[in-house]
Amino acid sequence: MQTNFSPEQLRNPDFKRSNEVLRSCVHCGFCTATCPTYKILGDELDSPRGRIYLMKDMLENERTPDLQTVKHIDRCLSCLSCMTTCPSGVHYMHLIDHARSYINKNYKRPAADRYLRWLLALILPFPARFRFSLILAKLAKPISPVLPGKRLRAMLALAPKKILPPSLNDDPQVFLSQKPEVKKRVALMTGCAQKVLDTDINDATIRILRRMGCEVVIVKGQGCCGALTHHMGDTDKALQLARANIEAWNNEIEFNGLDAIIINTSGCGTTVKDYGHMFEDTDLAATALKVSALAKDISEFLVEFDLTPILSSNNLNVVYHSACSLQHGQQIKQSPIKLLERAGFKVSQPSDAHICCGSAGTYNLLQPDISNTLKKLKVKKIEEKSPNIIAAGNIGCMIQISSGTDIPVVHTVELLDWATGGPKPPKLSTLQDMV
Q: In 153-176, which positions are buried (b, 16+ CB within 10 angstroms) versus exposed (e)?
């Protein structure tokens, strides 16, 4: 694609990167075949190719974003299925991130939209605030059908029935290996929303890592990865949150050493692995690259170990839902499936496994209609397989899918932990007669 950015624009790192991305696009349109929003809306401007034209025009001319452009860019899930499909290697993620940041700085949204985005950025990255908000949401849930606004009702609908107390395992500390010889020393990113919504995931991750011979460190000072605010266009807040993580992890690397930074929420993993790009023109450039290089999804890391199952799970059919941030963002597709099969489970995937479930960070709150349509499609494809269990590697997908089905949804690592000696995940209590 031909571009016409000025020399002055190209001195800005964001515009320079967007120029590189745009010039790699050859207009082939392969991306339209795998784009969820184009699939259900049928509008070229709701496809990656259409959005690329809109973003090119907006950024190249540095014009004030108009309602039409903002509408179609807001509808993008950032599922990155287009990046998997693209034969030209167009790095759509960097382009859409720049466009969202530009919109955030140059477009005045309606008051209700501004307030909701401000509220989400204020609450979601901070566990204590998020837990308190869920308590309020639980109290308001019975009256949600009569409340005004689809977004408010969507927020209340996703609130869990049970608010879990914090897990002490998420506090800064060191968990010793359960093997005489320590194989690896790793940091576990405990996250923000996940450790409020489901404390079992980090607990299971710590158990299985220790069982495999790893020393697990919960590093003081780490927190939200910045993805939630980054994808809403608030780059400054995202970089602030990311900087705290980089500095905390680097301190641990420098003083005690780390072999990996383990991440069990794939949406966070995609962002942390991109820290090198996000900070490439800052004082943290080299450190961010070092941190990104150490970041590993839990499935990507565990596949290197010998997982010997002690549970007879042959009767359990597991449908594995591949989170977009894992299969498209990180290009990790087979590791979770291989691990589940090695653990003794019968594993399958739904048809159209590449299509997003509609969660996508805050998307299910900001675009509830499209999100709900995608959720119904995903649940239908999963239920066609008649599974006993649904496994996924991202908390957002787990919450989204579980709100549309009675089939228990658990994190992949919970199943692996159970199969290799850990406790049965509480969400699988109804399966007691099958193992």
A: bbbbbbbbeeeeeebebbeeeebe
